[in-house]
């Protein structure tokens, strides 16, 4: 219910949405696009990162270096993927018990609501934000993988994905799809979760029982297809 939320989110939601409605149609369309579009970059990045590992395995020179690079690229991609998958599953579990309506419904903004491209495909509950959860979990996982392996490319990507996450979170508040609390509180939890995954016992468990079997399975498929 509305009275359960802090008063500051009501003011912030109303003011940001009013600003958006007073903007030009181009700005409205741009903000609506920013509320969704960045999530499509994540699978592309994971495929690119895992593909770097496959490519490194095919290099003939510096065999040991290539092997290490391939292993790091593949395990990094799987670590990021696993972090995001767990965050999605936990978000869906919480949504089974959450009863918060979208802000544009609670604040009676439905008549002049700025629609986002994916809104009609998402649950009606507002808490927690699927997009923000995935975005911040993904960006944090990329950052922590960079800290582990000191890959400068991942550092640049982490900064870029954090920018994507922040822009997306602001856009989803402005379009009244989510409250600030939907975005902020759950994101903090998943940043902590991503950090927890780098704890050595957890990381070793992940590498031994998840990453290694999946990489071996992938190698068997490639061997079968290209033998």
Layout of SSEs?
Blueprint: H1 7-22, H2 25-34, H3 41-57, H4 63-95, H5 103-106, H6 130-149, H7 152-174, H8 180-197, H9 200-226
Main beta sheet: strand number and arrangement?
A: none
What is the C-alpha radius of gyration, as a whole number of Å? 20 Å
Distinct helical segment count: 9
Which blocks of ≥5 consecutive residues have pLDDT under 50?
none
Strand content: under 5%
Number of strands: 0
Tally of separate domains: 1
Q: Any idea what the shape is? A: elongated
Summarize the structure.
This protein has 227 residues and is mostly helical. The chain has helices spanning 7-22, 25-34, 41-57, 63-95, 103-106, 130-149, 152-174, 180-197, 200-226.
Question: How would you portray this structure in words?
Answer:
The chain starts with 6 loop residues before the first helix and ends with a helix. The chain is mostly helical and 227 residues long. Helix content is 74%, strand content 0%. The protein has one domain (23-226). It has helices spanning 7-22, 25-34, 41-57, 63-95, 103-106, 130-149, 152-174, 180-197, 200-226. Helix 2 packs across helix 7, helix 3 runs antiparallel to helix 4 and helix 4 (63-95) packs antiparallel against helix 6 (130-149). The model has no long low-confidence stretch (mean pLDDT 77). It has 9 helices and no strands.
Keywords:
227 residues; mainly alpha; 9 helices; 0% strand; elongated
